Structures are given as C-alpha cells and as structure tokens.
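Q: How would the structure tokens look for this protein?
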Amino acid sequence: EVQLVESGGGMVQPGGSLRLSCVAAGCTFSSYDMSWVRQAPGKGPEWLSRINFNGGSTYYADSVKGRFTISRDNAKNTLYLQMNSLNPEDTALYYCARGRIGVPRNYWGQGTQVTVSS
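A: Here is the predicted structure in token form.
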C-alpha cells in the first residue's frame, strides 16, 4: 500500500515562508512524477506544481509561479514544496499526490494545513 505523509504546514504571517515535505512509502518513489495540490474551504482542488521522476522538469500554476519551488530527494523518498511570499489566499489544505496533475484523490496524501494570517 502506498502511503504519502505530508508535514511542515502551520500558521504564518503574510510575506512569510514555509517548507512542506511529503514522505512516500510503499512505492518506487523515483519512478513517479509527483505533484502538489491544495484545497481551500468551499473551493475545488487547485493543482499547484508537478515535478518529473528525476527532478529534471517542473511545472507551476500561474498563482504560485515565482513564489513556490518544488523539489525532490529520491534517496530520501521525499517531495518538497518551498513556499515564499505567502498571502492569505494561500490558506488551504495542501496535499502531495503520486503522479501527474489531475490524479484521483486516492493517490493523494492526507494533507497538511497552511494558514496565512496576521
């Protein structure tokens, strides 16, 4: 069974930074593209970023381009999302997902909450 466990969320002031991590178990992590998706209360999922299996290719949604950076460490089976210049609109539950943008929820982790507030 594949498990994805996110961590690193929390509360931060506008303009602050957070680094999310996602540790994968039960799969050959280095074989898969990985993605980050978030969901704010009352809204649908917003796919933020994707990284290919070896980290050589990345994609960012316009809403986070230039502020967020996706990366991975295949030796540690870990996916990262560095988030800078956070604003209240970034408040959401953040999930990592095994695969490309749009994979079903059963390929997601359990999520980590990010709250941006003064």
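The chain has no helices and ten strands.

The chain has a mean pLDDT of 96.

Upvote if useful.
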